[in-house]
Amino acid sequence: MIKNIVFDLGNVLLDFDPESYLADLEYDEQQKMEIKKAVFASPEWLQLDRGSLNFAEAKKKMIARNPHLAPEIENVVDGWEKILSLKEDTLLILKELAQKDYQLYVLSNFHQKAFAYVHEKYDFFSYFSGIVISSEVGMIKPEKEIYSYLLNEYQLKAEETLFIDDTLANIEAAQSKGIKGIHFQTAEMLKEELQYYFESVESLGE
Questions:
Q1: Inter-CA distances, 116 with 45, 79, 113, 132, 135, Å
Q2: What are the pLDDT digits (tens) for 36-91?
Q3: Structural domain of residue 116, as residue ranges?
Q4: Same domain, yes or no, for 108 and 183?
Q5: Which domain-ending residue is among 26, 48, 82?
Q6: Is 204 among the domain residues?
Q7: Per the database entry, which stretches of residues form a coiled coil (predicted)?
Q8: In whole angstroms, what is the distance from residue 32 CA to residue 91 CA?
């Protein structure tokens, strides 16, 4: 019986779309490709998730590796968290679940600065009984240790816990610890998959 539901943040409750962000900054296709690789696909991005690097250090390393993109990296990295926007359809599902008897949690790879920004901006965090952010615990998904940390920190039983994430590797890692998982694609599909675990969820998000 599922008692605990754990949500990822990026692309589950919050939209994270670097492509649109770069397009809004009016970079051309070649620039977008280079900047995306230099910033969002950089090793520093993962280090920010892990909390082992701060933004100033990360930006310095990104620029050192891509000096021809220095102005663009400065522009993109400063304030990138503002591209994170609320996924209203998933929020409706979260609110519905919050009215039931489930304990809700967050497990997400997130930079410290960006999490501070969204935590202050959005009030949906009040629905959660516990929050595990990668940069705060020094571990990232899909490392198995972070799932053990979640279970131990909040005294959860794996077989009573369901994890919702948009990255399949993260779901598979959770399942290896005995946690059930839903690979998030759309809110509508999430509602359908929740029916597998719960009764009377037809109204979720409606």
A1: 17, 12, 5, 13, 11
A2: 999 999 999 999 999 999 999 999 999 999 999 999 999 999 878 878 999 999 99
A3: 4-15+85-197
A4: yes
A5: 82
A6: no
A7: none
A8: 30
